[in-house]
From TrEMBL:
It comes from Haloferula sargassicola. It holds the Pfam family CCG. Residues 12-91, 141-224 form the Cysteine-rich domain. The lineage of its organism: Bacteria, Pseudomonadati, Verrucomicrobiota, Verrucomicrobiia, Verrucomicrobiales. This is Lactate utilization protein A. The gene is lutA.
Amino acid sequence: MPATQRPVGNKVLFMATCLCDAFYDDAARASVEVLEYLGVEVIFPENQTCCGQPAFNSGDWKSSRKVARHTAKVFAGDLPVIVPSGSCAAMHFHGNRLQFEECPDSAIDSLAGRTWEIIDFIVNGLGITSWDGAFKKHTRIAFHRSCHTRGTHTGEAANTLLSSIRHAEVVSFGQDDQCCGFGGTFSVTFPHISGRMGSLKLDHILEQRPDLLVSADMSCLMHLTGLARVQGRGIEHRHVIQVLRDTLVARNK
């Protein structure tokens, strides 16, 4: 769905996602800090859980529909729902539409139409096309486009903001549109294939000697940096929203 068709305002509902809850709490914190800096009031429903994607990807649509209905109830209303994950956002506006295709649900459809990945929201919802941020020194950034952000505005939005940060250089690398190999439950079901895909992705990324690996999906970062660490090829990594928060000039004065 084109971003311009979704409602935008100065008040939003925020979905932190399971990975923020378990591993990347600072990405959630950075999301709130950046949104509030941009004048957006952030509401966090405390009874939120998962988007349902693990069950959906495993073929257990009965369970994933149950989770989706709970999520739609928690995020009911007409406010935009902001998610710091291309994967979870795509579950709302794409996966749910697939699994409810034969049993339409107005609450699910409403959630799908109001969901934004956070970087897409900042650029295409709020109209922010440059970032008043700066690194302390020249920083080469490798931006990984996750599979779930294909066909959305997230990749272009992220590049727009990252490229506008002073002293930042967004470097290109080979096969940048290829999957990192995580794929949620795919990495559990087919660990060897998943690992080889991730290692190949790392080969292309590290060949460019970036200072920082950045993505709009924490699941991809978790997979790639986990492999890099085990292989002795560790690389510093950040979610895009953390980079925006950490380089903000007003914050660092």
